[in-house]
Structure formats: structure tokens, C-alpha cells
Amino acid sequence: MPKIQQLSPHVADLIAAGEVVERPASAAKELVENAMDAGAKNITVELQNGGMSFLRVTDDGCGMEPGDAETAFLRHATSKLREAADLEAIHTLGFRGEALAAISAVSRIDLLTKTADSAFGTSLHLEAGVVTERESAGCPDGTTIIVRDLFYNTPARMKFMKRDNVEASALIAAVERLALAHPEVSLRVIKDGQEVLHTSGDGKLYSAVYSVLGKQLAQDMLPVNSHWEKYTLTGFVTRPTATRGNRSNQLFFVNGRHVRSKTMTAALEEAYRNQLMVGRYPSCVLHLKLPEHLVDVNVHPAKTEVKFINEHDLFDCIRYGVQGALETASGRVAMVLPKQPQPVSGTQTLSAPAQMPRTPTPSAPKSTPMPSASAASTGAKSAAKQGGFRTMTAEDYRAFLSVLQEAPRVVPPKSPAPAAPAAQKTAPEKAPAQNAPVQQELHLKSENYRIVGEVLNTYIIVEEGQNVLLIDKHAAHERILFEKLRKRTEPIVGQLLLTPVLCEPEREEAAILMENEALLQNCGFAFSDYGGGTIAIRQIPADLDPEDAESTLNQIASDLKAGKRIEPEAMRDTLLHTIACKAAIKGGRHTEEKELRALVREVLSRDDLKYCPHGRPICIVLSAKQLERQFKRA
Ligand code: ADP
Ligand code: MG
Which residues in 504-557 belong to E strands, given as ranges? Predict the structure, then answer.
């Protein structure tokens, strides 16, 4: 048995340092968080060689007194926590008092710091955690910390570092998340002498989203704004038509802290159910605020994991909050036309660069186009408002009720309806009684349209007020059928096939089908393993054409393979998508005029027909304004 020995403080510190500082990105995150905790309004991060050889964070926060500046580098030294009880309501980003100790243990550090009250600042130099130089120095209020030669004394860790560009990207991504977490702070990142990020710090989340995620994504986003009990959810989510092949832009923040949470991801995606193609994911920047005692942030040293007292409430809050935003948004997508060389004033959603905030380092600000304070918010609003069905305001609703009372024969009011449906506010279950009048109203209104005709055997052109609508007949019919099928509560009835249909799915898909046999039976399918990789289909859902039996089952198998959704309800939806898609009128083929008329009537009178079950839009709007601009009449 080897002899047991207590590790030397030096080795113990290096081990602890390894947990907190994994790579340059984690060092940068800790330093920027410290600057934010110090109340900084402007923070600049400069890096060279991916942050390995040089990382400087400059802030205009509260600074430190000379004595504090040295204490700050000791382990478990913090100004943010005093006693155990404080752990129950942490409202700073840091609280462990470990970051500066950890970073300094594995690098060479220069610190320059000054409080507003003192005439002189403090300058410190540390090597591997030990102060080697200290003097007073003239410097601006705030703190500058330079980290050089990260991991120079831990070659084992150094080996794990990736190429400079990879480390730089991780570092920039970490700062971007902090920028989205705190739009009230202006963050600037300069990589190898070039500015790569500059947020305005105007306090508007949309401005930060615009700077970090880019104009395109920002414009494809809808505002979320819901309150429910002690939860407040705000931020932006993408329209169902603007999804991505991965989840990397799903960003969640809880009380100003970036977190990863399976529950939050699942709740977000649940809100989009039946609006997305398999393998496509929404993006979001969502801020959840809740009382500090309902969430425990003291879970993981890297602090992206948190624990919630009530995961169910969390799920519902996000799901209904996002659903509300998607429902309120226009179901019609505005047609995107090429930009005019000379844009007409007052029509753009985003305006010229805003004044950059004062920055603590003296490098010339590059003019990155930024949404100005007011333009940013109107940009978000008008994106959500473009064309389309609108939700009623409380006033509209009252007016509507009075119309009903005047003309009771048109639409007899069934129940005295409750409060106006404020979809933006929160997210109660959708009550059908509450919804019916809204649909009726839209129905009354939508008599004012004219079907112009059909083009390319696919798109129906409709004139409605000042808008030209293009309706994809297949997408529309598919959604209508899907909703109809889905409303049925009884189990899907099967029809026996006279002769079994034999099909030969891929080996993996065959296995998936056999695995899900019981579920598929509930959906009206019956099949058996015929041997040699062949499956014999004996029964199919009554609504399905036997000709489509094989391709439907194949489709379900590949959907299951891609999405791995196996809950019965989702499975049923997947099946209903496929049935609806197969049964819907086809684009590119002739359709009777009578059918087209019925389709248009349905699309324009209903509020729930926004996207086909795969997330493609049903109706696109081209406004008179847009046309006038294109023809240079306006
Ligand atoms: P923690 O943030 O968990 O308290 P750190 O090791 O990151 O631990 O920092 C230790 C202490 O140093 C902080 O509590 C704070 O008082 C002080 N400090 C660190 N960075 C700054 C800064 N940029 N401005 C002012 N004070 C700072
Ligand atoms: Mg800290």
C-alpha cells in the first residue's frame, strides 16, 4: 500500500485551477463576468493566438483598493458571498472566489486597477499565482487584467489546446453569450488587432441579438413576452420557416446567466410541434426571470447547469410563452424582394449605425452597422406585424362582441366570452370557446377578397385589400387535412388489405418499425416480419390509399430514424402528417376550380393555418407598397 500524503498547496491549486480554467474561453468568461459584477458598462476583450499568449480584459467598473487587489488572487477570496445563507439567493455571476486564483495559478498576470475614490491605482504582476511586483500607478477608473502565456507551467493541459482559431472561436462565442445575457453592457472583442464584435449596450436585447447573431437571423425572429406567476419570459424565437439543422443557436438565460437545460430545449421544441421538418431546429434567445430561491446555480463549476425547483412549471412557462408568440405572429410570410438601390425613407426596418458607446481602450471604433435604439425595437415589432392575421386587441374584441349583439342571427354568441385573448401575455390552455368568435370575426371580414386565378398549377393568387396573396395549394390542403385528422379523438381505424403489401425497408428502418409495432398498431397499421428483411403490411389506416401504404410506412420509418420521436402522441402526428401529405391535392397538377375556391375560403377564414405540417408557409403576402416600390411609383 503506498503511503498516503496530503498534496502540497501548489499541486492542489493546479488541480483546482484545471477545473475552473479549461481553456482560454473559460478564462475570458470569468474575467468578463467579474467586470460585469463590478458594474462595468463597457468591457473590451483583446486576444492574440486564440487567447493563449495574450488576453486582456478592460472594464470601467468599480475597481479595487490596493489591499483587495492582492487578496482577490487568493483561493476562496470573494466580495460577493459572506455566509452560507447567501448561497440561497445569488445575484452576482461569480460567487466562488476561485477564478482569479485559478487563472493566476496557470499564467503570468498584470493587473491595473483603480477605484473612483482613490487618486492612484494599483499595479500588480503575478507569476504562477505569486505576486512578484506591486506598485501604485496612475490609471483610469476600473480594472485591466492581462493574462499571458496561459498554461505555461502545466504542459499536460497545454497539449489539449486546439488550433488558435478554434480557441479564438470558443472564446468569442463565450463573450457573445455574455453580451446576449447583458444587453445593458457594451462588449467589444478585438482578435489579433481586428474588431470582431461590438454590442451597443443600449439595454435592448434586439440590438444585442442583431450584433451577435446577425441581421438575417434577427429579422427572422419573433418577440416573446410572457408573464406567468413568478416567471417572466422575454426574448426572441425564430419563425418556423427560419430553422437550422442544429441547435447551436438555442440560447437560454436564467436571471442573466447563460444556462443549458434539456427541459428548456424540449419545451421550446414542443411549442413548434407540427410546424417543423424533421431534423430542423428553432433558434432562440430567451431570458427567463424567476425568484432566486426557485433556482440553484451552485451546481457546476462551469456554471452552465442549474437546478430548478419545479421543472414542470419551467416547461409550461416556456412552451406556452413561445407558442403564444408563434400564434400571435402573422401566418403569412412577406415576399422578399431585392433591395432598391435608393431605399425610400421611412420604410426600412433597420437604420444607420448608431452612436458607439465610449469604450475603455483607445482603439478606433469600426463602424459596424447597428440597429439604433428606437429602430431596433420597431424592427422587431414590424417583423412580427408584417401582413397576415392579426390578433384582436381587447378593444377590437369588445367592438366585435357588440356587433354580435346587434346582429344575433349572424353568429349567435354562445358563451359570454372571458377576457380578450392576449396571446402575448401568457399562456393559458387554448380554450375553444374563447377561440371560436375570433375565427368567426375573421370569417366575416374575409369576404372581401377576389380569387384572381392559379399559376403554375400550384399557386393560387388572391387579391385582398392592399395585398396580393399567393397560396400554395398543396401546403394549404395538407394542413387542413392534418388539422381535421388530428381533431378526431377516437383511435385511427384500420382497413384490412386483401393482399398484404410486401415492402423491403433498410435494415435499420425495418428494425425501427418492428420496435414500434405496438404504436403503429394504434395508428391503424398491422404488419409482420416476412423474413429476409421483408415486411408484410396487412392493414393500413382507413384514410390512406392502399397504393400509398408502402411509401407511407417507409416515410414513417425514416422520420422515426431521423427524429427518434417515440412518444405515442408525436408518433400519431407523424403518421397524420404523412397521411395528410399523401391525400392532399398535388402541386403541379390540375385542381377543379370549386376545390380551389373552397381552399381559399378555408385559408382566409381560419387562424390556425399558418404553415404546412412540415413548416413551409401556406400563404405569402405581396403588398401594394412593395409593388409600388419595385415599380418606382413610391
Ligand atoms: P468571484 O467572482 O467568485 O468573487 P473571483 O476570483 O473571480 O471570484 O474574483 C475575486 C474578487 O475579486 C471578486 O469577488 C471581486 O471582489 C474582485 N474582482 C475581480 N475582478 C474584478 C473587477 N474586474 N473589478 C472589480 N473587482 C474585481
Ligand atoms: Mg469571478
Answer: 526-531, 534-541
Give 278-325 as a DSSP string: TT-B--EEEEEE--GGGEE-TT-TT----EES-HHHHHHHHHHHHHHH
The H or E element that residue 5 is part of is none
Q: Does the CB atom of residue 80 touch ligand 1 within 6 A?
A: yes
d(CA 470, CA 337): 14
The atom of ligand 1 lying closest to the CA of 92 is 2
Dihedral sign for Cα 332, 272, 417, 223, please.
negative
The model's confidence at residue 301, banded by pLDDT at 50, 70 and 90, is low
The answer, yes or no, to whether any atom of ligand 1 lies below 6 A from the CB of 144, is no
Report the atom number in ligand 1 closest to the C-alpha of 34.
Answer: 20
- Rounded to an integer, the average pLDDT of 267-292 is 88
Is the CB–ligand 1 distance for residue 57 below 6 Å?
Answer: no
223 pairs with which residues across the strands?
A: 236
Question: Residue-wise over 166-186: b if at least 16 C-beta within 10 A, else e?
Answer: ebbbbbbebbbbbbbbbbebb
pLDDT digits (tens, 9 = 90+) for 25-80: 999 999 999 999 999 999 999 999 999 999 999 999 999 999 999 999 998 888 88
Ligand 1 close to Cβ of residue 98 (< 6 A): yes
Output the average pLDDT for the chain.
79
Tell me if 371 sits within 8 A of 210, measured CB to CB.
yes
Residue 518 backbone phi and psi in degrees, to 5: -60, -45
Nearest residue (by CA) to ligand 1, atom 12, is 72
Buried b (16+ CB within 10 A) or exposed e, 78-116: bbebeeeeeeeebebbbbbbbbbbbbbbbbbbebbbbbe
* Distance between CA atoms of residues 287 and 550, nearest Å: 45
Query: Is the backbone of residue 192 left (phi > 0), alpha (psi -120 to 50) or beta?
Result: left
Query: Does the pLDDT of residue 406 top 80, yes or no?
Result: no
Ion ligand 2 neighbours, Cβ < 5 Å: 34, 94, 99
Cβ atoms within 10 A of the Cβ of 553, count? 24
Distance CA 316, CA 322 (A): 10
* pLDDT tens digit sequence for 312-348: 888 889 998 998 888 877 666 667 676 654 433 333 3
Report the C-alpha gap between 451 and 184 in whole angstroms. Answer: 50
Q: How far apart are the first and last CA of the chain?
A: 89
pTM over 0.70: no
Q: Name the closest ligand to CA 115.
A: 1
Distance 100 CA to ligand 1 centre (A): 7
